[in-house]
Structures are given as structure tokens and as C-alpha cells.
Amino acid sequence: MNQEEPNIQKQYYTIGEVASELQLTPSLIRFWEKEFKEVRPRKNRKGVRMFTRKDIETLQKIHYLLKIKKHTIKGAQELLQDKTTELDRELHVRETLKKMHAFLLELRDSL
User: Fold this and answer.
1) Which residue from 13, 38, 56, 72 could staple onto 17, CB 3.0 to 4.6 Å apart?
2) How far apart are CA 29 and CA 59, in angstroms?
3) What is the CA radius of gyration of the chain?
4) Greatest Cα pair distance in the chain
5) DSSP conformation class of 64
6) pTM (2 d.p.)
7) Which of 28, 25, 54, 22 is nearest to 39 (CA)?
């Protein structure tokens, strides 16, 4: 049988996986967990943090606000509480531009 395998995504990610994906340190993620009420990963019986895709998206927003836009923690907290779609749009545009840039570099290298 030659069936296509469905695109299966994990529901929970460890702090190491999240840190690697976002290119952050686990200690920074733990610090942001204390500072931002929006980041509340589940913990298993051993106390290992288990992040959902929503948690990862929230961490991406926090990273964008603190490191790219240079907001203070207080300012980033206020912006996250507003739950504006403008921040989501900015992040979506930024990710799209990164993908286009990578594609163009790949295209250039193949020529």
C-alpha cells in the first residue's frame, strides 16, 4: 500500500526543542515564563515543561517585541494584553519576508 502519510505535528514540545526552534536559551524562556502570564506551559509529573504551539507563538511575539522592537518588559506585557491583530500581522509579514529572502538566496545560488 502506497498511502500518503498524514502530516502529523506534535502537540507538546520540551523547553530544549522550543529553545532550539526559536534560537533562544532555556534560561531566557524560563525567565519570560515568570514575567509573562501568557506563557504557561504544562508540566508533566517530573516537572518537565511541555509547550504547545500556542505557547511557542506567544514566545515568538515576546521575542519580537523585546529583541526586535526593543520594548521594555512592561511595554511588551501591555502590548500582549491588548491582543491586537496588528502584532500578528507584523510577525506574519516578517516571517514571509524571511522565507522570500531564503528562497531568493537559494535561487541565486542555483544560477
Assistant:
1) 13
2) 8
3) 17
4) 56
5) I
6) 0.74
7) 54
Helix (H) or strand (E) holding 93: helix 85-110
**In DSSP terms, which residues pair with 77 in a beta bridge?**
none
How far apart CA 70 and CA 10 sit, in angstroms, is 32
Top-confidence residue, 7 or 44: 44
The residues facing 42 across adjacent strands are 50
Which residue shows C-alpha cell 502590548? 79
- Any idea what DSSP says for residue 69? S
The single residue listed with the C-alpha cell 506574519 is 92
Task: Give the pLDDT confidence of 16-62 residue by residue, as tens digits.
Answer: 999 999 999 999 999 999 999 999 999 999 999 999 999 999 999 99
DSSP for 2-53 reads: -PPPP----S-B-HHHHHHHHT--HHHHHHHHHH-TT---EE-TT--EEB-H
Q: How far is Cα 104 from Cα 111, in angstroms, rounded to an integer?
A: 11
